[in-house]
Amino acid sequence: MALTNAQYDSLMRQYNHKQMRNHQIVAQREQELYRKIPALAQLDDEVSRLSVASVEKLLDGDAKASAALKSQLHDLKQKRETLMQSAGFPVDYLVPPYDCPDCKDTGFIDGKRCHCFVQASIELVYSQSHLDDILDRENFDTFCFDYYSPDIKDPGIGSTSLESAKQAYDTALNFVHHFSTEGGNLLLYGDTGTGKTFLSNCIAKALLDQGYSVIYFTAFQFFDIFEKDVFQKDEEAMEAHEHIFQCDLLIIDDLGTEFSNSFTTSQLFLCLNERLLRGKSTVISTNLPMGQLREIYSERTSSRIFSNYQLCKLFGDDIRIKKKLSNEKGV
């Protein structure tokens, strides 16, 4: 997974904190041992002295003397363990309490990211995706076709509400399955409350679980970040602005619900065009008809979308109203 510099630095600060914590714990335990077992300090000094002497002999080519010193070291270490156990301490009492023993809380093994670093990366992008509180409820496993009618038909596309939903679902699933090799972009459009946001969340959940960085914004949040970055030089907005351009998948939900003006129009084009140039994927959902999308966001922006995005239409009854009525009836 490609992390931004800010995300990488954030993770490394966490690992540095773990290492400092471990160092402090070991130092405190060592002082405790020396207080309760005074002879242990002298024993450790002797171990250190013999260790240095052994290395010096080895560098001088005196392998026989070095071997003798190693034997003495072995005896001292056994004596050390006996003293600790007699005082009620485990022999590994001074081993740092690593969160990950495999990499010893460094995040890397032989120059490669440890499994714990990969997992921490996933957890970080989850927390920064703005989706972590709802993805357990809205994902491909919980998507339900029962809310889509097999009778309501859109003459424009010649499909029923149910057929359109199944096609959109399959398109989203295919998008996820081929994301690593093909990437791509999606425009989910259609009536209010027909599952566009839910389907976006399905995509986000699946890709986040695979370790990709996914950032979700409502249209209002999205343009608010650009405004704060450009006009207020807000530090948090500047960092979020970087994520917008670098994340693996950007989701812009409910495009068209924000207050549109020349600034929002230009910033949308800038973002979508830049992400296309970088080969980054974007999913947009909107209630706007295609003609109105062109009118509001200009010909050049709509041209980028229609030329580079796969279009998925969802239509039918408002699912949120259906759910509310079902709950009121106790269904």
Topology:
Blueprint: H1 5-36, H2 38-59, H3 63-86, E1 108-109, E2 112-113, H4 115-128, E3 153-154, E4 159-160, H5 161-177, H6 179-182, E5 186-190, H7 196-209, E6 214-218, H8 219-232, H9 235-246, E7 249-255, H10 262-278, E8 281-286, H11 290-308, E9 310-314, H12 319-329
- Provide the gyration radius in Å: 30 Å
CATH architecture of the largest domain, by name, is 3-Layer(aba) Sandwich
Note the total helix count.
12
Distance between the termini: 43 Å
* Widest β-sheet, arrangement of strands: 6-7-8-5-9
Work out the oligomeric state of the chains in this entry.
Answer: single chain
Mean pLDDT: 87
Query: What class, by secondary structure content?
Result: alpha/beta
Beta percentage is 5-15%
Give the CA-based shape: elongated
Q: Specify the biggest β-sheet.
A: 5 strands, parallel
Question: Could you tell me the number of beta strands?
Answer: 9
Describe this structure in words.
This protein is an alpha/beta fold and about 325 residues long. It folds into 2 domains: about 5-95; about 130-330, 3-Layer(aba) Sandwich (Rossmann fold), CATH 3.40.50. About 60% of the residues lie in helices and about 10% in strands. It contains 12 helices and 9 strands. It has helices at about 5-35, 40-60, 65-85, 115-130, 160-175, 180, 195-210, 220-230, 235-245, 260-280, 290-310, 320-330, and strands spanning about 110, 110-115, 155, 160, 185-190, 215-220, 250-255, 280-285, 310-315. The strands form 3 sheets. The protein has a 5-stranded parallel β-sheet, with helices on both faces. A two-stranded antiparallel sheet has the order 1-2. A two-stranded antiparallel sheet has the order 3-4. β7, α10 (about 260-280) and β8 form a beta-alpha-beta unit. α1 packs across α2 (about 40-60) and α10 packs parallel to α11. About 25% of the residues are buried. The mean pLDDT is about 85.
